[in-house]
Amino acid sequence: MRLALGPVGYHWNNDQLLAFYNDIAEAPVDIVYLGETVCSKRRSLGWMQWLEIGRMLKDRGKEIVLSTLTVVEAESELSQIERVCSNGEFLVEANDAAAVHMLMENGLPFVAGASLNVYNERTLAQLRDLGLFRWIPPLEISGAALATMIRMLGSDHLETELFTLGRMPLAYSARCFTARAHGYTRDHCHFICGRYPSGMAVETQEGQPFLTLNGLQTQSARIVNLLPYWREAAHAGVGILRISPDASNTPALLHRARVALDRGNIPEVADLIGAPECDGYWLEQAGIITSSAPCV
Amino acid sequence: MDLVAPAGSPGSLKAALEAGADAVYLGLRDATNARNFPGLNFAPAQLHEVVETAKRFQAQIYVAINTYARAGKWADWKAAVDQAAEANVSALIAADLAVLGYASRTYPDLRLHLSVQASATNWRALRLYRDLFNIRRAVLPRVLSLTQIARLAEHDVVPLEVFGFGSLCIMAEGRCLLSSYACGHSPNNYGACSPAESVAWIPTPGGLETRVAGILIDRFAPEEAAGYPTICKGRFRVENRIRHVFEEPTSLNTLDILPKLAALGIEAIKLEGRQRSPAYIAQVVRTWRAALDACQRDPVHFVPESAWVQALGKLSEGQQTTLGAYARVWR
Predict the structure, then answer these.
(1) CATH number of the domain enclosing A89
(2) B255 exposed, middle or buried (CB, 10 Å; 0-12, 13-18, 19+)?
(3) Phi then psi for A168, rounded to 5 degrees?
(4) Tens of pLDDT along B203-225?
(5) In chain B, whose CA is at the least distance from the CA of A202?
(6) pTM for the full model?
(7) Domain definitions of chain B by residue range
(8) Distance from first CA to last CA of chain B, Å, rounded?
(9) Residue in chain A lying closest to B212 (CA)
(10) Which of A186, A253, A274, B9 is the most buried (most CB within 10 A)?
């Protein structure tokens, strides 16, 4: 089982990002996704800096994939993903149909991100014909549905990467909700999202942690943890587990996960997460639901 | 510009046609469409009659098969496409690559419209769907500004349909799992957002509470009108303030920018509301018919009549309307 580190979803500053990836260079992770996927206004790192980080991590034996923006509206955003798709050096994760079109035109293999809505075996087959070699299933797909899709399609030339640990990206908008919470518009956002390195908490009126605001993106408040299901996932055809970066403990999590997986154990990470967990989607239930961990 | 109206029942279909819709879109009675509500939508056997009825009004029928086919359940989506094609409907509205691929290969003469659920927000995305499936029209998500729609229209990849009136999705359609996070069902996996069976309206001493799968979405004082608990219209606590974190209960209304949309060459205006009553459909379609006709006669001097504005205001969520993302400041 390989481990992947998803793109950083939050607006961290230059120093935070550089320090983070320096730590990741030492972490036991096989694949690292790089780049801004949420808001085109966030430019903590320049294009050349991202490439340098990619090369540095590649030298440390990691596979590098550049991720594209998820909501692509403006011409400038199209140019941004065009540059990623024709970078000529690293693989690309397509998070929007526009990126798929560019990669298809260039005849390049690609990773299909979770927002591409691959809900069934026929859609997966079509994308594989266009160049998909790896996919991240939509967050709300159950383990059983995933197994069905891979079984029906066969796992030849198909890598499946499961969003295994992190706050789940649940929705995208054109409106910046972090800015709205401060009375700003997106055009005049003062990059306020930079103040929330793990997002801004949303509770119900009776105090139940519910969602997390991250600019245009809305995430779950709970952290999905599918590590307890890693053997079932492997049996279904999942070959890669994705950990989504958080402001604290991500390198430690990767270490802990690697050690446990190598011993055939379930990684125990509750102390490193420090937030309520959930796993409902995997069990074909509401995403927010937490089941007790299965018997080992 | 064509007026595309919704229908969730034979009564609404008749209302829409009599009020002057150029086309009516509807869904089959299962999870293949994005308004999968109990008691709503059409049986496959009704489709022939629906098409015949529309013909008498010289109107078209579009069938929305716009959810994502479930793993291992392709037969249901295939059947929906086959039934619509056999009934000679004017177009299918679809988002899933599987549905679009099957329909374009099996029924190359059947028009395909890209559903808003595909979340195509740029010309490149439209090119993908045109190149692969020969889509003839695309319905644009409600997250684009008027300027961005103008840019898209300039690229002229396919004719465009935009939303004119009705409930406002503030998330990119097809990219919102808020409902399934709370209750297990979402537009993508089930064809419904906050489905009625998960919703509870609970009177309490502190006011009326609305909940989805037990999660408190909003709490209304006695004098407040309680809105339907879609999660993005709820009131939540952020940094110790309770507010509409995402959006107020409000409806989209683009009457004000009709001449601009016409000047961009937008092919059709879509009205939301397959879940609405025949009386609602009749009023909204009649109002929009009058507005579109007036705009066509004299776009330069077009001003929405106060009677239209009032009629639509009364039919709006929270009695409020907005231009939504069409106005850039909304973002």
Answers:
(1) 3.20.20.70
(2) buried
(3) -85, 130
(4) 999 899 999 999 999 999 988 88
(5) B238
(6) 0.96
(7) 2-168+250-330, 178-244
(8) 27
(9) A286
(10) A253
In-domain check, residue A290: no
Of B151, B171, B236, the CB nearest to A172: B171
| Number of domain units in chain A | 1
Residue A178 lies in a domain: no
Q: Which of residues 123-152 of A touch B (CB under 8 A)?
A: 123, 126-127, 138-141, 145-146, 148-149, 152
CA atoms within 13 A on the CB side of A156: 5
* Chain A positions in Cβ-Cβ contact with residue B242 (cut-off 8 Å): 205
Domain B2-168+250-330 belongs to what topology?
Answer: TIM Barrel (3.20.20)
- CB contact (8 A) between residue B329 and residue A185: yes
pLDDT in tens, chain A (296 residues): 999 999 999 999 999 999 999 999 999 999 999 999 999 999 999 999 999 999 999 999 999 999 999 999 999 999 999 999 999 999 999 999 999 999 999 999 999 999 999 999 999 999 999 999 999 999 999 999 999 999 999 888 899 999 999 999 999 999 999 999 999 999 999 999 999 999 999 999 999 999 999 999 999 999 999 999 999 999 999 999 999 999 889 999 999 999 999 999 999 999 999 889 999 999 999 999 999 644 33
Tell whether A203 is covered by a domain.
no
Whole-number Å distance between alpha carbons of B21 and B285: 7
Write out the two tokens for B329. 């400041």
Residue B109 dihedral angles phi and psi, to the nearest 5°: -90, -10
B209 → chain A, closest CA residue = A205
Q: Which of A119, A121, A175 sits opposite B189 (nearest CB)?
A: A119
Of A70, A72, A210, the CB nearest to B215: A210
Q: Which residue of A has its CA nearest to B218?
A: A205
- CA distances in angstroms from B204 to A156, B19, B207, listed in the order given: 57, 42, 5
Residues in chain A with CB shorter than 8 Å from the CB of B122 are 72-73, 77-78, 96, 98
Residue B245 to residue A285, Cβ atoms within 8 A: no
